[in-house]
C-alpha cells in the first residue's frame, strides 16, 4: 500500500492544516518540503478569501480604474480617454482572475505537492485530532503526529446597530463579486477596504459616500489619508470624516437603504457596504476541545505556536493570530512555521531568535502594506507616532515627490508625498511611507532597508536610476544628511 493511500485509510498524518487559503497552502508546502505527510481541510473554495473575494478580485477590478486615472495625468494620453471604464469588460477581467470562482486549479496544486485535500468543515477534536464534516453529513477523523495548523482566516465584522440584518449590507465579498454598479453606494469604514472600494466603485460610476469615524487609513501616516480623501473628493465622492452610523433601515427588500447618522441627518443609498473590521473565523473550529475560547484571536510565539496550549503541536497562522491581517504576512508566517514544524519533527534545534530562520520578526518590525487607491499608499515599519511611543529617538524626513524629475515625467504635476522615520541612535530606518501614483512598486526597496536595518551611510550608496520615481530616495537621504550636518 502506498504511503498516501495508507494515510487516507488510517486518517493519520504528520501535519493537519485547517484552511486551504494562501496561508494554509504555504504551511502545507513547507511541511511537505520537510518530508512530512500533510492533510489540508477546506470548507469553501481552495485558495481562500484572498483568491476569490479580497486581494485578487479587488486588484483586478481596481487596475482599469487606476490605469484610466494614470492616463488622465499625462498630456497626450488624457486626450485619448473619453469615457469611463467598460464595466462589462472590467467584471469579465475580474472573473478571469478568480477563474469564475472555480477552485479546480488550486485543488490540483494541493495534490501536486503531495498533500491530501479534504473538503468539509474542519474542527479540532482534542489534542492532535480534527474532524471533517462533509456537506453530505459524513464525518471522518484525522490525527496529527506532529502538528495541527489553524489557518481559517477572518470574516467581516458588522456593527451591532438597529436594522443591520434587514438591510442586507454589502461586505468585502459583495464589493468584489458584484457585477452591477449601484447608482448610489454608501461605504462605512475608512480603513484599507473602505478606501479601496470607494476608489473602485466611484471609478466605475457609482456616486459614493464614504463615512469614517476617524481619519482615513489610520494605521498609516496622517498625510496618506488626507491625500486619498482629497483625491476621492475631486473624483466626485462625498467623504465625511467623524461620522457614525447609528441605525439602518430598508423596508422594501428591493428598495433603497436609509442610514441614520450620529449628527442627526439621514443618508439614502441603493446599497450600503460595511468595511468596519474583521473577526477571527475561529468560532466553530473546536477550540473548546483544547481549552481555548471559541471566536477569539489566538496568541502565538514567533514560530506560530499557540501560547496557551501545551505540547508544542498547535499553530495559528495568518489572520487568526491577529499579528497582521495581510495575505503576504500570513504567507510569511506560514513559511516560517512550516520550517519550524519540520525542525521540531526531526529533532533539530530552532533558530527562533531575532531575524532567525524560525522567527517571524518582521511581524513586529517590518510589515509592508499597500492600498491600491488613487493615489496609492504604501508603507513599511513604524509611523513617526508609533516610533516615538515605542521610545525611539527619531527624526522624520518629509518630501513631496515633485522633487524628483522621474515622478514628474511619470505624471504631469505628480502629486505625492514621502516620509522616512530614522532611528537617530543607530541611524537606520524604522519606517517609510509613500503616497502617490505607482508608489506600490517602491515599497520593496523600503522593506529591504527597514528589515535589513541598512545603515543610512550605506544606503546612500544605493543609486536610484535617473529619471525614475525611485529618485525620491536620493532626495530623502540628502535631506537627512543636510539636517545632520
Automatic annotation (TrEMBL):
Top-level EC class = oxidoreductase
Q: Print the keywords alphabetically.
A: FAD, Flavoprotein, NAD, Oxidoreductase
Q: Which GO terms describe its molecular function?
A: oxidoreductase activity
Domain Pyridine nucleotide-disulphide oxidoreductase dimerisation residues, every copy:
367-472
Residue ranges, annotated region (Disordered) = 159-178
Entry EC number(s): 1.-.-.-
FAD/NAD(P)-binding domain ranges (all copies) = 13-325
Which protein family is it in? Belongs to the class-I pyridine nucleotide-disulfide oxidoreductase family.
Q: What is this protein called?
A: Dihydrolipoyl dehydrogenase family protein
Organism (species): Streptomyces kebangsaanensis
Q: What is the lineage of its organism?
A: Bacteria, Bacillati, Actinomycetota, Actinomycetes, Kitasatosporales
Amino acid at each position: 500500500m502506498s504511503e498516501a493511500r495508507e494515510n487516507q485509510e488510517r486518517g493519520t498524518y504528520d501535519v493537519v492544516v485547517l484552511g486551504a487559503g494562501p496561508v494554509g497552502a504555504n504551511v502545507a508546502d513547507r511541511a511537505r518540503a520537510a518530508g512530512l505527510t500533510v492533510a489540508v481541510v477546506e470548507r469553501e473554495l481552495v485558495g481562500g478569501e484572498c483568491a476569490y473575494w479580497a486581494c485578487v478580485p479587488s486588484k483586478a477590478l481596481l487596475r482599469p480604474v487606476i490605469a484610466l486615472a494614470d492616463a488622465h495625468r499625462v498630456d497626450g494620453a488624457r486626450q485619448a480617454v473619453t469615457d469611463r471604464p467598460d464595466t462589462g469588460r472590467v467584471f469579465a477581467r475580474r472573473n478571469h482572475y478568480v477563474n469564475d470562482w472555480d477552485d479546480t486549479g488550486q485543488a490540483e496544486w494541493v495534490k501536486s505537492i503531495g498533500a491530501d485535500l479534504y473538503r468539509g468543515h474542519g474542527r479540532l477534536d482534542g489534542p492532535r485530532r480534527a474532524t471533517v464534516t462533509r456537506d453530505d453529513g459524513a464525518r471522518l477523523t484525522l490525527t496529527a503526529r506532529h502538528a495541527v495548523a489553524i489557518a481559517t482566516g477572518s470574516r467581516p465584522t458588522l456593527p451591532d446597530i438597529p436594522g443591520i440584518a434587514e438591510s442586507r449590507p454589502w461586505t468585502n465579498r459583495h464589493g468584489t463579486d458584484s457585477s452591477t454598479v449601484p447608482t448610489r453606494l454608501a461605504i462605512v469604514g475608512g480603513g484599507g477596504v473602505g478606501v479601496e472600494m470607494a476608489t473602485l466603485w466611484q471609478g466605475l460610476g457609482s456616486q459614493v459616500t464614504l463615512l469614517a469615524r476617524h481619519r482615513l487609513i489610520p494605521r498609516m501616516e496622517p498625510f496618506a489619508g488626507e491625500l486619498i480623501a482629497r483625491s476621492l473628493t475631486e473624483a466626485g465622492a462625498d467623504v465625511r470624516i467623524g461620522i457614525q452610523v447609528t441605525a439602518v433601515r430598508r423596508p422594501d427588500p428591493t428598495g433603497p437603504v436609509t442610514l441614520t447618522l450620529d449628527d442627526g441627518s439621514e443618508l439614502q443609498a441603493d446599497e450600503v457596504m460595511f468595511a468596519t473590521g474583521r473577526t477571527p473565523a475561529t468560532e466553530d473550529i473546536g477550540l473548546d476541545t483544547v481549552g481555548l475560547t471559541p471566536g477569539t484571536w489566538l496568541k502565538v510565539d514567533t514560530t506560530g505556536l499557540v501560547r496557551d496550549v501545551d505540547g508544542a503541536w498547535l499553530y495559528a497562522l495568518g489572520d487568526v493570530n491577529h499579528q497582521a491581517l495581510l495575505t503576504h504576512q500570513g504567507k510569511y508566517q506560514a513559511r516560517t512555521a512550516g520550517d519550524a514544524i519540520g525542525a521540531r519533527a526531526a529533532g533539530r534545534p530552532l533558530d527562533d531568535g531575532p531575524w532567525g530562520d524560525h522567527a517571524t520578526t518582521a511581524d513586529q518590525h517590518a510589515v509592508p502594506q499597500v492600498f491600491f487607491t488613487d493615489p496609492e499608499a504604501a508603507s513599511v515599519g513604524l509611523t513617526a507616532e508609533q516610533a516615538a511611543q515605542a521610545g525611539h529617538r527619531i527624526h522624520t524626513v518629509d518630501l513631496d515627490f515633485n522633487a524628483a524629475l522621474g515622478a514628474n515625467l511619470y505624471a504631469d504635476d505628480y502629486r505625492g508625498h514621502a516620509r522616512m522615520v530614522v532611528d537617530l541612535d543607530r541611524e537606520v530606518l524604522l519606517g517609510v511611507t509613500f503616497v502617490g501614483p505607482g508608489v506600490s512598486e517602491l515599497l520593496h526597496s523600503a522593506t529591504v532597508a527597514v528589515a535589513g536595518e541598512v545603515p543610512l551611510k550605506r544606503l546612500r550608496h544605493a543609486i536610484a536610476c535617473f529619471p525614475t520615481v525611485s529618485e525620491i530616495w536620493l532626495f530623502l537621504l540628502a535631506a537627512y544628511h543636510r539636517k545632520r550636518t
